[in-house]
Amino acid sequence: MKKIYFALLVLGQISYGQNSIKKDSTTTKFLEDVVVTASRSAMSKKEVPVAISKLSQKTINETKATAVYEIINKTPGVLMVNLGNEQHSMAIRQPMTTNAYYLYLEDGLPIRPMGVFNHNALLEINQFNLQSIEVVKGPVSSLYGPEAVGGAVNLISVKPSEQPELKMGIQADQFGYRRLQVAGGTTIGKVGFQLAGLSSLQKDSWMTFSNYNKDNSNGRIDYNINSKTRLIGTVFYGQYYSDMTGSVNEKDFYNRTYKSTTNFTYRKSEALRTKILLERDWDPNSHSALTVFIRNNKLGQNPSYGIRWTPGKTTAKGEINSNNFKSYGVMGQHQQSFRFLNTAVVAGGLFDYSPVNYNAYQIDLKANLNSGGQTVSSYEITAERPDIRLSDYEAKIYNKAGFVQLSVKPLTSLIVTGGARYDNMSLDYTNNIDKTVGNKMFDQFTFKLGANYNPLTYAGFYGNYSQGFSPPGLTSIFRAKPGTGGNTGVLAEFYYDLKSAKFNNYEIGGWLSFFQKKLNFEYSLYYMEGKNELLNIRQPDNSTLYQSAGETRHKGIEFAVNYCPSEQFKIRVGGTTAQHTFIDFKVSDKPTDLVKDLNGFEMPSAPKWTGNSEVSYYPKWLPNFRTSVEWQMVSSWFQNQINTVKYEGYAIFNARVGYQWKGIECYVNAMNLTDKLYAYNVSRSNVTNAASSYTAAAPRTFVFGLQYNLSLKK
C-alpha cells in the first residue's frame, strides 16, 4: 500500500473527476440520469420500467463517508444496516436481513459467485474509487441471475481522466478512527491509468474490543486500440481484519455501557478480483463486450453471532470457521439496435467455475453471568475443539447462464421491455463429516415484462412484472442441524432438502416534474410474493435452524422528492412504507410449542417506515462552501418472529460542512448530531424468557477531514 501511495505522489498524474463541492444548476437532472444497471446498456431513467436510483459522484464526494452505508442510505426504499466496522446487512423490499436476497456488483460483475453469498461483501469496496452507485429495487434476476431479489447494488468505479489529476486526503474522528486515501490517474495517448488506495485504522473506540484495519487498492488501465475497440483491465486487492464486538444486553444498552462480552471474536478477509474487458463498437447500432475474470477470496472468523448460550448456564459454545473460494469465469454480451420500432436487443451468457472449501469447528466457552443469571458479562475460551466439526466440505461450483432482453418503441411515448434468463448452478461436493460425495443442481428460468409511458413533458409512468430467485447458500446446506453431530450422540444431519426461494413481483410507478424541473417527484408501488424463503429460526441457545418452506408477502410504496428552489438550496425527501408478512409458514410440529406456524405474523426486523431526507445549502456569499443536514428515520419493528416484543426504532440527524480554497478542501461531519441512544438492530428468539440483543449505534461522532485536489491541465 505504501508503495502505491508513493508511486501516485511521484507521478503526479492522478485523477479526480470533478470539484467535490461544485454546485449543480438550479434544475435537477434525476430524470436525465443515464443508468446502465437496469438494462445492461446506457439508457435514460425514464426509459427503464424499474425503480432505480443513481447516486452521483457529487453526492459521494460531498458525503465523505467513512463507510459506504452512509451513501447508499440516501436511496429511497433502501436501508443498509451498519453492523460496525463496515460490516452490514440490508433491507430492500425485504426486512433487515443477512439472507442472500441482494446482488452486489462491481462495474456490472457480481462480487461473489452464485452459492457463496456474503452479506458483508461491500466492506471490500474502496469508497475512494467510486464514480457512482446505482441501486435497482425489486427482482432483476432476468438480467443478473440469482440473489437479485430485493434488488441489486452496482458500484461503478472511476475511469481514467483526460488530464493528470490527483486527490489525496486524511480523515479522523474523536474515537480513534483514522484513514489515509489517495486516488487518481491520467491519459497518455491511447492509454489511460487510474489508481486508488485506502487505508483505515480503528483503535480504542467508544465500544470496547472494536478495533479494525482495512487496506484496499484499485488499479485500472484503459487501452484505446482504435476508435471502435477498447481493452480495459482492472485489479482489486484488499485486506481486512476486525474485532467482532457483537451485541450488548438490554441493561448495558440503556446504561450506555458499551462493553463487548468477548475479547477473542474476529472477522478477517483477503480478496483479489481482476478482470479484462474487450469492447467493440461494430457500428453506431452494434456493440459487443467480452469479460474474463478471476476472484480469490479468503475469509476467516471467530464470529460473535456464532456463540450459543442458554440463559442461566455458565457454559457456552462458539465456533471458528473459514470460507475460501476461487473463481474463473467469462461473460459475453452483445447489444444490437434496429430501425424497426426502434428495437434494441441485449443478449449474453456467463460461465463461472468456483472451487470452494469451508470448515467450522466448536470452541468451548465459560459464561461469566451478571447478577440474576439471565445475561452474560463476558465469555472466555476454555478449549478449542477441532474434533467437533460443525461443517466441513469441499465443492466445485459450475454456474452457467444465458440472458436476452428486448425493448421496442411502437409509439414516441411508449417503450415496452421484456427479458428472460436461464441459470444453472451445479456443484460436485464432498461432505467430510458424513463422508458423502455427491452433486446438487439448482436451475431456474426467470422472466420480466414492463413498459414505460411518457405522454407529457412533466409526467411519465411505468409498470412491470418480474421474477426473482435465490438458491440456498452452501454454508446453509452443509451445516449440521442443531442437536446433531459433534458430541451430541446423534448422527449429524444436514440441510440437503433446502430449496430455492422464488419471487413474483408486480410493480407500478412514475415521475412528475414541475416548475421548470426544479421540483421532481418519483414513486413506486410494489407487491411481491415469495415462496420457499430461507428462514433462520433462532433456538433458545442462539443456534439457528434453517427452513425453506411456506409463503411470504412483501408490499410497499417508495417515494422521492427533489426540490431546488434556487442555486443555493437543494432539498431531498425520500422514504418507503412497507409490510412484510408470513402467509403460510410452519415452524414446529412439537405439541409443547405454543406457536406452530407464523401465518399472518409480521416478519421480524421489518420496520413499516424508513426515510432519509436532506437539506443542502451552497451560499452565494461564500463560494465553494457547502453545508447540509440529513435526517434518517427507521420506525419500530418486531424483535422476534412471534410478534411479542417491539423495538421503538429511531430518528437521528447528521450534519456536514465543507469548504474548498483552491485545491485544499476541509470538512467536518457530525454523525448522530443530538447524541441519541439507539440501536441499528435489536432481535431475540421466540422463547418466553429470551433476552434482547442490541447492536448499539455510535454516540455523537465528529469526523474531520482534509483533502487536496490537483488538476494539471494539458
Automatic annotation (TrEMBL):
Subcellular localization(s) per the UniProt record: Cell outer membrane
UniProt cross-references to InterPro entries, sorted A to Z: Beta-barrel_TonB, Beta-barrel_TonB_sf, Plug_dom, Plug_dom_sf, TonB-dep_rcpt-like
Chain ranges of the TonB-dependent receptor plug domain: 45-152
Domain TonB-dependent receptor-like beta-barrel: residue ranges: 213-673
Pfam family, one: Plug
Keyword Iron: yes
Bilayer topology term: Multi-pass membrane protein
Claim: Methyltransferase is one of the keywords in the record: no
Main location group: membrane
GO CC annotations, alphabetized: cell outer membrane
Xref: PROSITE patterns: TONB_DEPENDENT_REC_3
Keywords: Cell outer membrane, Ion transport, Iron, Iron transport, Membrane, Receptor, TonB box, Transmembrane, Transmembrane beta strand, Transport
Domain of life: Bacteria
Gene Ontology biological process terms in this record: iron ion transport
Family, similarity comment: Belongs to the TonB-dependent receptor family.
Xref: PANTHER family: FERRICHROME IRON RECEPTOR-RELATED, TONB-DEPENDENT OUTER MEMBRANE RECEPTOR
Protein name (database record): TonB-dependent receptor
Organism: Flavobacterium amnicola
